[in-house]
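**Polypeptide and fold**
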Amino acid sequence: MKRYILILIYSFLILAGTNLYGQSSCTCECLKPMFDYLIASNRLQTKETDHIILASLLRDARRAGYDVSYTRCAILYKNINKYFYATSTATSGTTYSARIGDCEVNINATSSVTFNNLLSNACTGTGETVTYHLSGSTTTIATLSIGNCYTCTTAASALCYSAVTDTSVNAYTYGLAGNWRPSKSYVYYGNRAETNTTTEVVLRTGGTISAFAPFWKVVNKKLTAQQDTTRWVWNSQTTLYNKKGLELETRDPLNRYTAGLYGYQDAMIIAATQNARYREATYEGFEDYYYGVPACDEGCSIGRNLDFSGYKSYITTEAPHTGKYSIRIPKDSTIGISASVVQVDSTSLGLTFNTGTNLCTSTSVLKSVKATQDALLPIFSPIAGKQIVVSCWVKEAQPCTGETYVNNRLSIVVKRAGNSDTTYTAIPKGAIIEGWQRYEQVVSLPAGSTTLSIYLKSLNSTVVYLDDLRIHPYNANMKSFAYDPGNLRLMAELDENNYATFFEYDDDGTLIRQKKETERGIKTISESRNALLKE
């Protein structure tokens, strides 16, 4: 599970004379039966946390016999897959307000009324409003109208409404429980029965283990682990899996971690790290932001370890270091990304079981299960008290006459409690290679650190490109990979120092050339050709 938030950039469209999106008004025709149902079913005060989709609400109204249709006006069909909820909580008064997707609707009364007692009048005139009266009276006492509507663009971020953590969940439905996977592997250490080297061994029956103790024993007709820890010694433990069952994090008895980061909708491994936890290391090559289903259609089901979705419009094919994409920083602009710094890593599952009393039997029963953030896969969030290495490749969109670029600035900011910041300015490491220069900076995350931020700024009206950003602990090493998003062929492998090996293919998909990026430039290390003879 991953987390997204939809960042809405609003621009107001005041509705007067015409309804939403410039079409002729039909507010009364489409909203009257809908709100008749809401009043009759006592659903006017639907809460935002109920997450009621407009489509499901209209379906319930039709099933109850109300003549509702989302095709009658734009406010419904433009928001059919968005939420309906009340933005006011009072059941009586002079003003009621609610949201239908990106639009506000309001009921304004001439005097205080109980909203669930309102009865609608027949639609008349232009039908831009719905009017209401009370039982036993024909006097119009309230009017429903559309208020402000919004247009928006969406961008994904690292925070979002989560169906797992925000509501009670079925732990099995969301894959939090019930998926059995290997946890630890054990190796048996013991002596062979044959200890005398001068005695001849019968090969057919020899080689048995002396005083063998089985790992599993039958206890009360059940297989139970009864391992002898002096003989059965574990050598590997998997601590994290992703939703496709792929290992993300393992550790050995010396508490050394190995982690793998997957991309392309968890289809391909994009980074492998040794001596680092899953949450401590990240890689971004900008290759799979356009792979598969667009992020805006994924909702909150899929997310990223380090999320640049807010800058998706900056991702370009103009000048990649590896693969096909890099991110372009316009002239005199800045892009930035931040990650939370945690004090300790959590290994708890994070499920809370809420119980209640069965009214029939007076026994305690399970009412609901709530999951905390610890139940989700962690996104990139380094651990305080360590040093990390930030490495990336930068290119300026103009010829460089010196040995290094000067029209950009890569800053790393470590924020601590009390608003005390430490800022590092990354410096180039090595020469400019085919227009790209590698930046690397060691950064300390002291105890009490709360946020790690990275900013790349273009200076002096220069367009700057960024690619192959890597962050990992100082005493860890990482290899990362870039693939062709069209066919998932490996295009580049970046070594422990973030230097790339490039792979080139012919039209048939056969590997024909390998090139290695070095401090002295890119060198061809192997090349092959083949052809079929025609008879």
